[in-house]
DNA sequence: CCTTTGTGCAACTCTGTGGTTGCACTTTAT
DNA sequence: ATAAAGTGCAACCACAGAGTTGCACAAAGG
């Protein structure tokens, strides 16, 4: 079942299994923030299914201006989800989904906290 | 290793394994949006580690006003991550992390797309 | 060389959101 | 009954984000 990025059932490079809960503000902010916009998720999916593309091409498939799409791409790029490569006079954007592991990491840590809380409740004298 | 919510290695109630990529706008927007704020993630973690609490109590542990905290709690609640219960004159907030499964669902779907793309590249004649 | 196509930059508008303050209302306690 | 503690609502401000338009600059192509 594929091998691309390391966030499958097995490993999920969870950063700091303990000492978590420190919120790790910086990265997760921009990451979750980038994913919070449907247009941006759409762009990511498009780039994954149809392969790398330029801002102008992507703009043609949306009701948005090239500039608007460009801004979205830049948001995604600063979140680490994209990178670009200049070809001739065009700039081709490509998905680099490694940061997603961080998101899953936080979520799984949170899920663990929840589980621990449940356990604690279970251990209470009825 | 606990049982709380169903997003562990095994199942991850992935909604629509195919037909994904439809972006499912609504819910994921508010969900990722809610998680995009460090204060809100902090509040979730606090509520999980120290158990349910009121807005006023939570406000004491932050540099924020009760009103600000209140707004954050409401954002989290409309994202489905919290619910509240009125006790006497107080309102107690509690974490309900089930929606997190949706977030992981999208991420895993995206990871799958990535994997498929890798596979496609591998199958190309060198 | 001149036209086309694509990108880069900047200014501007509009709306949403984080945060505040102020006050009214309800519940508990003295 | 009255004071204290807690919540609810509304107005307000400041700033960031989404989106637009306009124009200048770089690369291909005739």
What does this structure look like?
The structure is a homodimer of 126-residue chains. Chain A has 126 residues and is mainly alpha-helical. The first copy, chain A, has five helices and three strands. A three-stranded antiparallel β-sheet of chain A has the order 1-3-2. In chain A, helix 1 packs across helix 5. Chain A is elongated. The first copy, chain A, starts with 24 loop residues before the first helix and ends with a helix. Chain A binds chain B through residues 1-5, 7-10, 21, 23, 25, 28-29, 32-33, 35-38, 41-42, 44-45, 48-49, 51, 95, 97, 100, 103-104, 106-108, 110-119, and chain B through 1-5, 7-10, 21, 23, 25, 28-29, 32-33, 35-38, 41-42, 44-45, 48-49, 51, 95, 97, 100, 103-104, 106-108, 110-119. The structure holds a DNA duplex (30 and 30 nucleotides).
Number of helices, where a helix is a run of at least 4 consecutive DSSP H or I residues of chain A: 5
Percent of residues in helices of chain A comes to: 40-55%
Order of helices and strands of chain A: HHEHHEEH
Distance between the termini of chain A: 45 Å
The most extensive interface, with participating residues per chain, is: A-B, 45 and 45 residues
Radius of gyration of chain A: 19 Å
Ranges of chain A with pLDDT <50 over ≥5 residues? 8-23
Query: How would you describe the shape of chain A?
Result: elongated
The major sheet of chain A is characterized as: 3 strands, antiparallel
């Amino acid at each position: 079942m594929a091998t691309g990025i390391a966030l499958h059932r097995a490993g999920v490079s969870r950063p700091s299994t303990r000492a978590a809960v420190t919120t790790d503000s910086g990265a997760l902010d921009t990451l979750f923030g980038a994913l919070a916009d449907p247009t941006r998720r759409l762009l990511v999916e498009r780039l994954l299914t149809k392969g790398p593309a330029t801002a102008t091409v992507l703009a043609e498939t949306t009701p948005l201006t090239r500039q608007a799409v460009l801004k979205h791409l830049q948001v995604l790029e600063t979140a680490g989800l994209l990178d670009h490569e200049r070809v001739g006079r065009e700039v081709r954007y490509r998905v680099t989904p490694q940061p997603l592991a961080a998101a899953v990491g936080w979520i799984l840590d949170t899920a663990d906290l929840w589980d621990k809380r449940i356990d604690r409740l279970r251990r209470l004298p009825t």
